[in-house]
Design a protein that fits this description.
Elements: E1 2-7, E2 12-19, E3 23-31, H1 33-36, H2 44-66, E4 75-81, H3 85-102, E5 105-110, H4 111-117, E6 130-133, E7 140-143
Parallel strand pairs: 1-4, 4-5
Antiparallel strand pairs: 1-2, 2-3, 6-7
Amino acid sequence: MIIMAIESSCDETGVAILKDERTVLAKTLISQIDIFKSFGGVVPEMASRNHIKVITRLIDEALKQAKLTPDQIDLVAVTEGPGLIGSLLVGINAATAFAYANHKEVIGVNHLAGHIYSANLVKPMKFPAMALLVSGGHTELVYM
């Protein structure tokens, strides 16, 4: 199964294409950290506007990097929360539009669960497990 994953929960826009559980075919990312340095933190409205400017290009770049066409994508995954609502909506709308145009299914991914389970790309997780999640205001210790 080939999955396109879109992430836009805060100030970074990311698109990845994965095959099966551990093979990353493509990854593209644009950070807005330099834009917000002078503000001392993320400005939500500016973040969402900047996602709009780059998300289509990142989708195209990921497909090119993976050497795939949209019809070869089986599923589209997108961060559905938690995060900045405007930023999330940009990713959700881009994922939904791509999926609709290409007759694909969309699934929502919890941002925090995504952080935790991304460790599976490095090494399979064994349960029970303890995860330290450090993601902005969502820092927590999770027993699974």
